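Q: I'm teaching a short session on how sequence maps to structure, and I want students to see two examples side by side rather than one. Could you give me a first protein with its sequence written out and its structure tokens following it? Keep the formatting plain so it prints cleanly on a handout.
A: Of course. Example one:
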Amino acid sequence: MRYLPLLFLLATVIGAHAQVPEPATGQRPVPEEQWKKAAADLDYSKDVPKPKKERPPTDAPAPGFDAAFWGNIAQVVAILLAVLAIGYGIYRMLQEPRNRRIARDGAEITEENLEAYLHETDLDRFLRDALARSDFPQALRIYYLQVIKRLSESGAILWSKEKTNRDYLREMRTHLQAPDFQGVTRTYERVWYGNAPLDATGFARIEPAFKHLLAQIAPPPVP
């Protein structure tokens, strides 16, 4: 009981402290004339945020670019290039020599390899080309190859690209046209291998001997 006065005194002090009002925290009013005077020199126009510039997307077409138009132009150009390529290919085909032939093994038959494909080409075509360009030694060579081909087809000789003119002369020793064949062989070797000059006049003088022998050789037997 002796503590009751002390407790009463403590409760009184706490209650008094709780009832003390707190100081106001509101805004202090400012007279209108004083506010106008203070705000006269203030410029709020600079505080307005500037609008952001919108950047176009990186994949967007450039201004004025018409994708459909240029796409059509590219398509037309591609078609023109294809037509030109086809035309050039046809032109090259037409420019190929008429005597161009492909052998059975896939090789192209030319003047350089006629001996290897003697029975697979038309020697008359090569002869006409050589005469057209006045290549008389080449024309004489083709005449001689015609003689060899005709002798092979008639059975007078056994043709082989490994054989030489000497081999064919030995096979023709007992043949009726042996003297004529020996004569054209000497002429051919003198011009082709001996590099003897041959012009139009000289060719006209020796051509009849080759034509005569070709006419005398019996045609190949009919199968």
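Q: Perfect. Now a second example for contrast.
A: Example two:
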Amino acid sequence: MVIAGVCIDKKIERKLKLLGVKDSKKLSPKKREELFNHIEILAKDIIVLKVPACKIDKYRSQKINLDRIEAMKIADIIRMMNADVFYIDSIEFNSERFKKMILEYLPEEKKNVKLIVKNYMDETVTVVGAASIIAKVERDKAIKEIQEKVGVDIGIGYSHDEKTIKFVESLIKSGKELPDYVRKSWITTQMLQEKSLQSKIKDFLFKKKEC
């Protein structure tokens, strides 16, 4: 998980918009890289928080779901960043509930900051689009580092990606303990483990019948 915060002067927002800054999902990797460099130069402050898979697994073992993890990390960014207004893309359909969740994790001196929390804000507010670009480029770098480490194409790391699924499946089939960069609490990982277990049971019973 990679979460980013970008702080800009209001007058810079138009400049970023003219450069093409918008929701990172609507940009090519090359364009994101290009805009990443512009944002780094023009922003007053940039904060990037990375939560590794093993850390997410630890949170999940404590019954802290992904929404809460993200709320905690956004609160950390707000605490570290000096800004008058914070625009936040809500990952929950109920944006007010997500806002209250973030406020829970803010220290007293930050609880009165102005938070504007809405759905799809990365599509409508330039600075939120800038933060999404920073987070996406940093995430892509992290995926590339893992690929270089293992020496195979692991895909983009999402549950809909066939390469990622096949890679995690191959790790499970190896019988070795899953590495720290694989989220064990990920529903995809759990489903693949269940599938592997069922396959092993089926093979065992079939061999037993043959005997």
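Q: What should students look for in example two?
A: Point them to this: The chain has two domains: 2-144, 152-210. Also worth mentioning: Strands lie at 2-7, 45-50, 85-89, 114-118.
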